[in-house]
Design a protein that fits this description.
four-stranded antiparallel beta sheet, elongated, Rieske Iron-sulfur Protein, binds FE2/S2 (inorganic) cluster, 1 helix, alpha+beta
């Protein structure tokens, strides 16, 4: 004698269940991958403290991209600024265009000046920044704490 009678699925129910299961797995994997890519990690690489280089590698007026940290080190009057490459519109990576002397978003055309302030396009605010620390002549950037801004002021700079 069986306590539970096994329920028989129709072919349509089986196929629906299979598709639903596959969809749930696909959504879960996509969400996990996206979270992992976007969320800063606790240590090492983007999301941790990144060594950008020696202070002398960033001469006044320079804009240098640091691939491992996904940010730019800008040496402007008064000090260094670490700008996250992520556009504040929809998140595209924003390249520095030397010939234009500005950051020029490739997706929807947002423009940012050397300190990341919006000069055009749909971006709602300046590029976010990361805290910069200089220790023994080495530039370190904490990518675990992106800071949103409404504008630029010199207090955002780390003096060299
Ligand atoms: S993502 Fe940069 S302008 Fe849309």
């Amino acid at each position: 004698m069986q306590l539970f009678e096994p329920k028989k699925l129709t072919r349509g129910q089986f196929l629906s269940l299979s598709w639903l299961s596959a969809l749930v797995v696909l959504i879960g994997e996509t969400a996990f991958g996206l979270m992992k890519f976007l969320k800063p990690t606790a240590s090492g690489g983007f999301g941790g403290s990144i060594y950008a280089g020696k202070v002398e590698e960033f001469p006044p007026g320079s804009v240098n991209y640091i691939l491992s940290g996904r940010f730019y080190i800008v040496h402007t009057t008064g000090g260094l600024l670490a700008l996250w490459q992520r556009c504040t519109h929809l998140g595209c990576a924003v390249p520095w265009v030397e010939a234009e002397d500005q950051f020029h978003g490739p997706c929807h055309g947002s423009l940012f000046d050397q300190v990341g302030v919006v000069k055009g396009g749909p971006a709602p605010r300046p590029l976010d920044i990361f805290p910069v620390t200089i220790k023994d002549g080495e530039v370190w950037v904490d990518t675990s704490k992106p800071l949103e801004r409404t504008g630029f002021d010199p207090s955002q700079l780390t003096p060299v």
